Amino acid sequence: MDILDMDRAHVWHPYSSMGKGQPVFAVGSAKGVRLKLTDGRELIDGMSSWWCAIHGYNHPVMNSAVTAQLDKMSHVMFGGLTHQPAVMLAEKLVALTPQPLQTVFFSDSGSVAVEVAMKMAIQYWHDKGMASKQHFLTVRSGYHGDTLGAMSVCDPVTGMHKLFSDILTSQYFVDAPSCRFGEACTERDIAKMKACLEQNHMKIAAVIMEPVVQGAGGMRFYSADYLKQVRHLCSQYGVLLILDEIATGFGRTGRLFACEHADISPDIMCVGKALTGGYMTLAATLTTLEVSSVISSGEPGLFMHGPTFMANPLACSAALASIDLLLSSPWHQTIQQIEKNLADGLGDCRNKAAVADVRVLGAIGVVELEQAVDMQTVPYRFVEQGVWVRPFGRLIYLMPPYIIGQADLQTLTEAVKNVVNGLTQSSV
Ligand SMILES: *Cc1c(COP(=O)(O)O)cnc(C)c1O
Hints:
Blueprint: H1 3-10, E1 27-31, E2 34-37, E3 42-45, H2 48-51, H3 60-72, H4 84-96, E4 101-107, H5 110-127, E5 135-139, H6 148-152, E6 172-174, H7 187-200, E7 204-209, E8 213-214, E9 220-221, H8 224-237, E10 240-244, E11 268-271, E12 283-288, H9 289-297, H10 313-327, H11 331-346, E13 355-361, E14 364-369, H12 378-384, E15 387-388, E16 395-398, H13 406-427
Parallel strand pairs: 3-15, 5-6, 5-7, 7-10, 10-11
Antiparallel strand pairs: 1-2, 2-3, 4-12, 8-9, 11-12, 13-14, 14-16
Helix pairs in contact: 3-10, 4-10, 5-9, 7-8, 11-13
The chain binds pyridoxal-5'-phosphate.
């Protein structure tokens, strides 16, 4: 049996069903921005493996950081033990993120980092004698992960809340910000957020949001001014602010962290995805001394969470190398150049009948269609053109590794244009 047949018979893929023969391609290796399929074809990567592989694949500096750590130890438990990769990474994250964030809780995936953030917020208020603050307020079209707590703050429709209504905690939702990135946020834009906080702040532990870019919930870019006002309202109403930088962190939006667009800092921040440059699974939840000291001095005086692979040394070493690589590169100019090339390359799509919107921010380029993409055929259209692009819903988007060259980037944007043109022709 060939590997694809075995895959179809036994292996689940993300957001898919078994037995429907959805297109799946087998990768044998990857280097730079190219994925090499086992049938010999090479694909230019337009996805960075879901925001992660910012330095591309099989990077010599990353490889040697991981192998050097492998020679020492791949893992030890973190209960009662510590190690240099974890401590150095925590120091680095504290130095890079906004100043009030001073303590770091490592976990093994983004969803878990969000669970940790939510538990921290609830425990903080419990220990402050305000145990009624157990819920969260967020905006629609958000995405924070697939575990049950994280899911409860994802968009209720795309997160399929109905299906899990008996076990999902009900949270407070307001409409997604309608003011776009670069626009001001009017009183009207923020009114519902404000009203919800005013009415329910005694039940709300924290507002949780993705800063500036809503990723998997719709690839929307909203006003930094909106975020600034949310920060202000949180402080005013005694509610913590959790920013989920799992997708946006490490330069993707043109700033190291997206909250910098709004010049604010959260009380709790989650990072993941590009943290290790896509080498290993690792995430972290950072918080302030205020939050950590209240939790640590309250009752029970412990934070009750501790993943088996907490602060995995291989992953921490990869993260240290990835951050060094990023910071020692002219990443700011690089992202600006990618932004310009994406805007130039995708701009033409705007005039097509099948296209509802085209938007670009940092190294993220989005073509929003009028109708959902046919995932039985469109993946083949991209692979035939030698690129790896994976749309979802009505969205075709590019977020290439930062190391991508201009010619490869152009191949990606041309491929998107060709696919969009094909849609236009077949739908009129
Ligand atoms: C991907 C993502 C998560 C979940 O991370 P996993 O590592 O897949 O669990 C959470 N929040 C945001 C904003 C994400 O993009």
